[in-house]
Task: inverse folding
């Protein structure tokens, strides 16, 4: 142990004298690790200590009334009793609870306020969906072209004029819906930072701009949407790091033709995402980069293995019957490519047996058989569940009839499917369950 400490001290001296800090950040801490004989993780931790990175204060997790409301709404069952017995425990942050765009049920997604709310609710991992601006800077947005529904860009004339498609009102006579399209690639980072985040919504029947900027679904709220603070990817890294939490950035599919501006390639885009964590001296073990594009995940596995080994393949193939069957049949091939974590939507992991009980699906069984870790999405995104729950519950709709049923599905996902975590628009619900179950 003493020899290892000495090697680390030598590595520190080499870093300071020769400027290897920059090299370490650029190459995943590998070159410094080779010089010291220490692991890349040890070097990352040492550099953090060297430059005085403050240890974050422990978050006082607060769950609010919603988890209790959902437990009370459950039908009588052993699970309900078990969850009720946990009502007075002091919750703690858990990696099982992943903040989907922060806490998007009630806060404008991908804003500072949304992330802070998710952290307060015990989410151990926070998501920044990553896309790029006109000047090729990375920002947190769910889609490259959603600024017209997630921000106030249309209310700023000089920026609205730069939108791919300006606001066009509805026309009841022709049946034309109101529309607009504003992309991060239409504006620079500096311009992006002048925007206010709002709840993701629009009114297709709108005949005025004010009407179009409304439309928030009834199960959400505009109470916290006065002016959400939009963030660059770098700012999200600093915020989440300061909270002592983990990161799951999703590289979003570009809405523009790639290469962007003729020479900005998909590979450069994928590399830029990782480079920003390395520049911030974030240990790779804290980062779970994700993409719906398998090629992105394979790029990270091949070019940035320290990050790629935690790459998450968001599996949307299941959205068609043919794709679902192909995904189940192709699990071994996917594993052979080096993918370790798959993330399908929740409905793809559960089904009903002959007795009408919620059980693991064929996809779930195949993924576990191949040794995959599984993450799923998204809880608390469906509104009320009295009508079966919609998209996220489509394979178990016959047994979904009240809001408490979300916890029944979550219990099967956790204990029978064996997921390692789940995205939620209101992380408090998952945090409550995870703490009660010791996850």
Result:
């Amino acid at each position: 142990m003493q020899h290892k400490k000495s090697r680390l001290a030598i590595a520190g001296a080499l870093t300071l004298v020769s400027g290897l800090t920059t090299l370490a950040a650029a190459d995943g801490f590998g070159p410094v690790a080779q010089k010291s004989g220490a692991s890349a993780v040890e070097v990352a931790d040492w550099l953090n200590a060297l430059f005085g990175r403050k240890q974050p204060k422990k978050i006082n997790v607060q769950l609010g009334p919603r988890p209790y409301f959902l437990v009370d709404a459950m039908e009588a069952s052993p699970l309900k009793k078990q969850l009720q017995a946990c009502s007075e425990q002091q919750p703690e942050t858990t990696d099982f609870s992943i903040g989907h765009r922060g806490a998007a049920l009630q806060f404008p997604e991908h804003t500072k306020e949304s992330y802070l709310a998710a952290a307060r609710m015990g989410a151990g991992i926070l998501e920044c969906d990553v896309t790029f601006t006109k000047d090729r800077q990375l920002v947190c947005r769910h889609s490259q072209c959603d600024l017209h529904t997630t921000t106030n860009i249309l209310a700023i004339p000089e920026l609205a004029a730069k939108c791919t498609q300006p606001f066009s009102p509805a026309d009841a006579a022709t049946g034309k819906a109101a529309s607009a399209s504003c992309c991060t690639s239409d504006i620079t980072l500096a311009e992006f930072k002048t925007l206010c985040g709002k709840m993701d919504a629009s009114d297709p029947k709108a005949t005025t701009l004010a009407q179009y900027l409304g439309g928030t679904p009834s199960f959400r709220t505009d109470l916290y949407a006065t002016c959400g603070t939009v963030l660059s990817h770098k700012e999200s890294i600093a915020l989440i790091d300061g909270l002592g939490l983990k990161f799951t950035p999703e590289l979003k599919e570009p809405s523009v033709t790639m290469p962007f501006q003729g020479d900005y390639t998909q590979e450069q885009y994928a590399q830029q995402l990782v480079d920003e964590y390395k520049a911030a001296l974030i240990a790779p073990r804290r980062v779970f980069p994700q993409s719906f594009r398998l090629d992105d995940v394979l790029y990270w596995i091949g070019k940035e293995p320290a990050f790629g080994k935690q790459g998450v393949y968001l599996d949307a193939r299941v959205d068609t019957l043919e794709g679902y069957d192909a995904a189940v049949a192709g699990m071994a091939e996917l594993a052979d490519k080096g993918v370790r974590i798959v993330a399908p939507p929740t409905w793809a992991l559960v089904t009903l047996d002959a007795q009408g009980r919620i059980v693991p699906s064929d996809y779930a069984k195949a993924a576990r058989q191949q040794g995959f870790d599984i993450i799923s999405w998204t809880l608390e995104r469906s509104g009320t569940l009295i009508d079966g729950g919609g998209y996220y519950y489509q394979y178990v709709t016959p047994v979904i009839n009240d809001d408490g049923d979300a916890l029944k599905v979550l219990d099967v996902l956790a204990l029978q499917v064996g997921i390692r975590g789940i995205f939620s628009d209101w992380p408090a619900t998952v945090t409550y369950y995870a703490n009660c179950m010791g996850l």
